[in-house]
């Protein structure tokens, strides 16, 4: 009896194991069926997409064949027209003999050159009312000495603003703002200034203040022009200046890799590249978008150049002379072609202390704001018309 119970128990156990195995196999089969169904759906979708792609490719090839045929017909037509024109030219040459050589009178050439110049002048007057250029420097005024050897100071060049902005040094991020020139001159150092901290450091001395915006140069891996709104204390825009293999603009101010300038016609950029390493280049910029509108390679050399500025579309470059404490503008470039170096008067700066690290023109006052070895200097200019030369 006890043996029978053992046999029954073993049989039940075997049956349970068998049932568990069957259940496991059923689950596996169901999983495999699901995966086969999913694969079948994906295969069907891929096949449908391939058919659609094939139809699109066939349609595009048909269109290309049509366009190819149209192009071939057009080319055949052009070839026929060219042959006709060549035959007509051959006929005209047979009907008209060669023109005799003519000696051109020198006076006639001079008249033609004068006529071209007059047309250029008329075109310039039509495009712009600005035709001023420097005749000489009338006076020099030394306001004070503050800050380091190199820097830049200016006013807002777009309007009659009394505020003065001091950029001390060539790698700083804080502008010193004075309410008036009088406050600046009577301030012990920078104590009466309002400090404006920029979001990044400037490079060199090539900055300007225009329409309540500071345009300054920041050099990292690339040279960037930053437009900073002083009213909102925010960066309005920035643009990488399209310079490859740049070199310092001025031989005597190597910290300045790009020099911005403002005149009656807007914003300019003065720069130099390794490709044109011996000379200075000029670009016109859009004050809103900072886009480059036009670029020129000038004949003004970088060697012994201190600084430069722009007046009425004419670039003036100041150079150190062999005479101690003297410099002069001995190269200019007029983008309108109205004035050349041979026609321009020599402009000498009065005796100074060291070397100009910056020269900024204010078209509202017709003054040059100069930084000379830590001295802040004003130059009063005498102007004349380009067309009077």
TrEMBL record:
Give me the disulphide-bonded residues.
130-312
Q: Which InterPro entries match?
A: Gal_Oxase/kelch_b-propeller, Olfac-like_dom, Olfactomedin-like_domain
N-terminal signal peptide: 1-16
> Which PROSITE patterns does the UniProt record give?
OLF
Question: Which gene is the coding source of this polypeptide chain?
Answer: olfml3
Q: Where in the cell is it found?
A: Secreted
Q: Which family does it belong to?
A: Belongs to the OLFML3 family.
Is Glycoprotein one of the keywords UniProt gives this record? yes
GO biological process: what's one of them? signal transduction
User: Residues in domain Olfactomedin-like?
Assistant: 129-385
Q: Which GO terms describe its cellular component?
A: extracellular space
What this protein is called in its record is Olfactomedin like 3
UniProt keywords, alphabetically: Coiled coil, Developmental protein, Disulfide bond, Glycoprotein, Secreted, Signal
According to the UniProt entry, the coiled-coil residues are 47-74
Q: Please give the chief subcellular localization of this protein.
A: secreted
Q: Which Pfam families match?
A: OLF (PF02191)
């Amino acid at each position: 009896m006890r043996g029978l119970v053992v046999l029954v128990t073993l049989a039940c156990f075997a049956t349970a194991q068998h049932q568990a195995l069957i259940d496991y196999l059923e689950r596996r089969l169901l999983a495999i069926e699901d995966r086969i169904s999913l694969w079948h759906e994906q295969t069907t979708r891929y096949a449908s997409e391939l058919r659609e792609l094939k139809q699109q490719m066939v349609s595009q090839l048909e269109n290309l064949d049509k366009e190819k045929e149209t192009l071939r017909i057009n080319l055949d037509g052009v070839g026929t027209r060219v042959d006709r024109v060549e035959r007509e030219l051959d006929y005209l040459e047979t009907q008209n003999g060669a023109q005799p050589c003519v000696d051109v009178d020198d006076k006639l050439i001079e008249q033609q050159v004068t006529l071209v110049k007059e047309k250029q002048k008329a075109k310039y007057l039509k495009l712009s009312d600005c035709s001023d250029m420097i005749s000489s420097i009338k006076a020099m005024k030394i306001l004070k000495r503050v800050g380091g050897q190199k820097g830049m100071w200016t006013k807002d060049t777009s309007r009659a603003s009394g505020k003065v902005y001091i950029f001390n040094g060539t790698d700083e991020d804080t502008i010193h703002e004075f309410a008036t020139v009088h406050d600046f001159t009577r301030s012990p150092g920078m104590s009466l200034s309002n400090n404006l901290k920029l979001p990044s450091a400037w490079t060199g001395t090539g900055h300007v203040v225009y329409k309540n915006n500071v345009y300054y140069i920041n050099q990292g891996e690339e040279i960037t022009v930053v437009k900073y709104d002083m009213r909102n204390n925010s960066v309005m825009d920035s643009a990488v200046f399209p310079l490859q293999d740049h070199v310092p603009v001025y031989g005597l101010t190597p910290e300045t890799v790009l020099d911005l300038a403002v005149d009656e016609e807007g914003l300019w950029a003065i720069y130099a590249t390794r490709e044109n390493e011996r000379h200075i280049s000029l670009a016109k910029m859009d004050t809103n978008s900072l886009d480059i509108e036009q670029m020129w390679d000038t004949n003004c050399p970088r060697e012994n150049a201190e600084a430069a500025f722009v007046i009425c579309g004419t670039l003036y470059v100041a150079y150190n002379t062999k005479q101690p404490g003297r410099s002069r503008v001995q190269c200019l470039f007029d983008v309108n072609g109205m004035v050349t170096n041979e026609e321009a008067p020599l402009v000498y700066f009065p005796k100074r202390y060291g070397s100009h690290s910056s020269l900024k023109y204010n078209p509202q006052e017709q003054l040059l704001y100069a930084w000379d070895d830590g001295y802040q200097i004003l130059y009063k200019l005498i102007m004349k018309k380009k067309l009077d030369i």
